[in-house]
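May I ask you to comment on the folded chain given beneath this request?
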Amino acid sequence: MENHIHFDIAEHALMLLDQRLLPGRETHVACRNVDDIIHALKTMVVRGAPAIGVTAAWGCVLALRDVLEKGGDPSQWRADFNAELDRLAQARPTAVNLRWAVERMRAVASAFQGSAAELLPRLEKEARAIHQEDIAICKALGRAGADCIPDNSTILTHCNAGALATAGYGTALGVIRAAREQGKHIRVIADETRPFLQGARLTAWELKEDGIDVTVACDNACALLMQKGMVDCVVVGADRIAANGDSANKIGTFGVAILAQHFGIPFYIAAPLSTIDTATPTGAEIPIEERPYEEVALLNDRRICPEDVPVYNFAFDVTPAHLITGIITEKGVLRQPYTDSIAAAKASASR
């Protein structure tokens, strides 16, 4: 599954599968400018840290195209372009891949001495590289993590860290796919993941499409499932990992990790190295996005909370490093102490 994010050269648009409508409808949204990209990110047409990064990379291409089409003072195009990149980088606060992709694209532009028109194909080339690299990284990550998965095991996952959350293949679901490709018999329990139901709507849809045995469970069933011995390991994704290994993921992940420790169940984070933010020392410094009231108060446009009753809608929580058995990356499975293993993996990747 790699066509849910694709750049249409003829239309000069980034086409995004609208994940809000799954599993009922498969419809693509055309993003033709930075405003369209920001709207798609904020409203979760596209979500998942690596997918957000890939989308942002193509958004930088559209930002330069915006500047070219508006014309204006030729000497001002760099300032106008960088202002658009700044807007794009602030679209969502928690997923570090957004900022990472924007800064990588900005670096290409900063090193280029030609005109805006001459820069455009170079930015397209870089965005395409980021897109293709993400798929390759997820497959390498999957192979590294598959060895952590026993044969005939049941894996619990939370939210959606599959192909839809990346450019293709997935992180947590990439590990599951790779384990099956090794010939292992795998079963999956997908937490429904309230309030946006990414597990029920997206993870279950992906795995069903792949013919992988999947069962959806309500989030509150996690403790009972583990108590009954129905879960052999947990694999989830991440939106940002701090330098010490603390990991932000979809709200509810922290509770799953606590339960996994209580029942002696391995708990893995699967994420590319680009999701590790060494500039963030610990999870306490990770910004936690708060999302709109309606996501909690309404279900399919039907009110489920009394009017005038406020809600908490924190989109993420942070799992402390000591609860994490291993962080699965394209450079292998990182182990505690994470401050050391993360630093070593980042140094290896930069060589």
